[in-house]
Design brief:
Layout lengths: L6 H14 L3 E4 L4 H13 L3 E3 L5 E3 L13 E3 L4 H4 L4 E2 L2 H12 L7 E9 L8 E7 L2 H10 L1 E2 L1 H10 L3 E6 L20 E5 L4 E5 L4 H4 L2 H17 L2 E3 L1 E7 L5 E7 L6 H5 L9 E6 L3 E5 L5 E4 L4 E5 L9 H6 L5 E3 L2 E3 L2 E3 L32 E5 L16 E2 L2 E5 L9 E3 L3 H9 L2 E3 L11 E3 L12 H11 L5 E5 L19 H11 L6 E2 L4 E2 L12 H4 L2 H4 L4 H17 L8 H19 L5
Parallel strand pairs: 1-6, 3-19, 4-5, 4-10, 7-9, 9-11, 14-24, 24-28
Antiparallel strand pairs: 2-3, 6-7, 6-8, 10-11, 12-16, 13-14, 13-15, 16-17, 17-23, 18-22, 19-22, 20-21, 25-28, 26-27, 29-30
Helix pairs in contact: 2-5, 16-17
Bound molecules: ligand TSX and manganese (II) ion.
The site of ligand TSX has 13 residues, from helix 9.
């Protein structure tokens, strides 16, 4: 270690070097040469192969393809600080366990030291981390997903504080052990220590388990820092919308996985003159200033997106983003091109090699459903010029959304921020391939943070309520409503700009909307249907309808969900009042329909 490292950084590295016993230590500088060296290592070890356009394809072990929520732990000192939605283990017990397991875990390997910054380099919003890892795949991915290397290290040396991120695939190459293309372990641990801002990740090399800057740091640990410091670390995209008169508004939006966050973040609007630019597709850090305005940054530097379903039709800007300089993980390939289910040109391919490295015969999947692309945000043609803005961007509206066949209208604005917070806490999602579990099952997913809130969800609700005086307008959207025959009632994708246009009009005070018991929906005549397929425009009133009986049941189900969880006394009683407020309005609407 020739270069200057402040004493805390030095002792962090040395103590884990001693524990892990790697052959050598490499401090990453984040250069392109270093990236190329990681790729070369992966090619030589059979982990990766080159595709066209400087893309590469990596195949993981089929046992290591997604986040492992049942192996993810919040190790706060007190159990009640982890709350009912997290797995809790007492910190010293977890440390002892992992100290034992990690002893000698990097034998025969290099320990890479990755200094990185979450957020624009030099921004007051940003936080630093150092990840130790024995995986060249992780080094390559961290270069795309974070501001990684020398500059981050220089700033960190000066600033002092950093989150300790410790990762090993835990496959030591002791005497006589041969390496495998994707080393990993069955007994995985993804452990978070919120009080000491530490992450210990053992036995997995995949995604959110291993790229510790993302879900572990920027959501689980950051949510704890944010609660302590009075800001928000959220599972939200950030987009900047420009109307035909060059008026811009910036929106943050929380959607559970599989609702198309990345598609919305990069969407190509169908309405002429409108522009949508992306600042982030997954995580937003939001702080309010002394004027009560909310400002946000995207702590990430790249996109780690789900490949299956991405196509010229669903997300043309993503397709252009990932044309070159991209790491594909667990996709199929043919002739130097990455391939997956839902890519437009699928049928043209004749000799596809699947993610499991066999010739595709139609009976098996080309790509794993959680196959990913990793790409630097700089490759994105619709990246906002505010992406690196040190001051962040002012958030004019918060959107929350779910994926619901029935009941929830296309869009409504909540009457106030407190009601918006309750609506955010009411989100549900379908289980997806992004995490190990039952695909297709509906689960409650407050603010899309269920797997990512690093502390007691009751305290999280209280924190949102405490922030509510400083929150902008809140809207709920649902692109996924279906008619009685099971057809989608809304075309979605680029046509969602019509919903954003209405939201825009609300923010500018131009649209009055129509009051319903749950909030304000568009008046049909306010909604821009120019050029919209008649099959959709003729059922708009249906899309804006609020079924009071169904919504009454919705709030009753929400109530029983909250009651089913043991928040250890941390549940905000205001939520019960808010639910009653909604229920009273719904009951009144039923008894006297003319009053609304
Ligand atoms: O991402 C989606 N969005 C947001 C886009 C900006 N998806 C994909 C979800 C899975 C990740 C959507 N799917 C959206 C949507 O708005 N809407 C739907 C449902 C839908 C699917 C297909 C059609 C219409 C609606 N139409 C045809 O296939 C022709
Ligand atoms: Mn996500």
């Amino acid at each position: 270690m020739e270069q200057f490292l402040n004493p805390e950084i030095k002792s962090f590295i040395l103590s884990y070097q001693e524990l892990f016993s790697p052959n050598s230590v490499c401090i990453c500088n984040g250069s392109d040469e270093e990236y190329d060296r990681m790729i070369q290592l992966m090619i030589e070890s059979g982990t990766a192969e080159r595709l066209a356009n400087n893309n590469i394809l990596v195949r993981s072990d089929p046992q290591d393809v997604a986040r492992v929520e049942d192996r993810t732990f919040i190790c706060s000192v007190k159990e009640e600080d982890a709350g009912p939605t997290n797995n809790w283990v007492e910190p010293s017990e977890m440390k002892d366990k992992l100290n034992g397991l990690m002893s000698g875990a990097m034998m025969g390997r290099v320990m890479y030291v990755i200094p990185f910054c979450m957020g624009p380099l030099g921004s007051d919003y940003s936080y630093y981390g150092i990840q130790l890892t024995d995986s060249p795949y992780v080094v390559a991915n961290m270069k795309k997903m974070t501001r990684m290397g020398q500059k981050a290290l220089d700033l960190m040396n000066e600033y002092g504080n950093f989150v300790r991120c410790v990762h090993t695939v835990a496959y030591p190459l002791s005497e006589g052990v041969k390496d495998v293309p994707w080393p990993c372990r069955e007994d995985k641990y993804i452990a978070h220590f919120p009080e000491t801002r530490e992450i210990l990740s053992f036995g997995s090399g995949y995604g959110g388990n291993a790229l510790l800057g993302k879900k572990c740091f920027a959501l689980r640990i950051a949510s704890c820092i944010a609660k302590d410091e009075g800001w928000l670390a959220e599972h939200m995209l950030i987009i900047k919308i420009t109307d035909p008169n060059e008026v811009t508004r910036t929106v943050a939006a929380a959607f559970p996985s599989a609702c198309g966050k990345t598609n919305l973040a990069m969407m190509q609007p169908s309405l002429a003159g409108w522009k949508v630019e992306v600042i982030g597709d997954d995580i937003a850090w939001m702080k309010s200033n002394d004027k009560g305005e909310l400002y946000a940054i995207n702590p990430e530097a790249g996109f780690f997106g789900v490949a299956p379903g991405t196509s010229k039709k669903t997300n043309p800007n993503a397709m252009n983003t990932i044309r070159q300089n991209t790491i594909f993980t667990n996709t199929g390939s043919e002739d130097g091109k990455p391939i997956w289910e839902g890519i437009d040109s699928f049928a043209h391919f004749k000799n596809i090699i699947t993610w499991k490295k066999v010739l595709h015969d139609g009976s098996d999947k080309v790509a794993h459903p959680n196959a990913r692309f990793t790409v630097s945000a700089n490759e994105c043609p619709v990246l906002s010029n505010d992406f690196n803005n040190l001051k962040g961007v002012k958030i004019d509206a918060i959107l929350v959304g779910g994926r619901r066949d029935e009941i929830i209208p296309l869009v409504f604005q909540t009457f106030d921020a407190q009601e918006g917070v309750l609506i955010g806490a009411s989100l549900t999602s379908e289980m997806t391939a992004a995490a190990k579990g039952t695909v297709g099952k509906v689960r409650r997913d407050p603010f899309a943070m269920l797997p990512f809130c690093g502390y007691n969800m009751g305290d999280y609700f209280k924190h949102w309520l405490a922030m509510s005086e400083r929150l902008p307008a809140i809207f709920h959207v649902n692109w996924f409503r279906k008619d009685k025959d099971g057809n989608f009632m809304w075309p979605g994708f680029g046509e969602n700009i019509r919903v954003l246009e209405w939201i825009f009009g609300r923010l500018k005070g131009e649209y009055e909307g129509k009051k319903t018991p749950i909030g304000t929906v568009p008046k049909v005549e306010e909604f821009n249907v120019k050029g919209l397929d008649e099959k959709y425009s003729k059922q708009l009133s249906e899309l804006f309808k609020v079924d009071t009986d169904a919504y009454m049941e919705f709030f009753e189900e929400l109530e029983s969900y909250f009651q089913s969880l043991d928040f250890k006394g941390r549940f905000p009683s205001e939520f019960n009042d808010l639910i009653n407020q909604f229920k009273n309005r719904l009951a009144n609407a039923n008894s006297s329909p003319k009053s609304l």
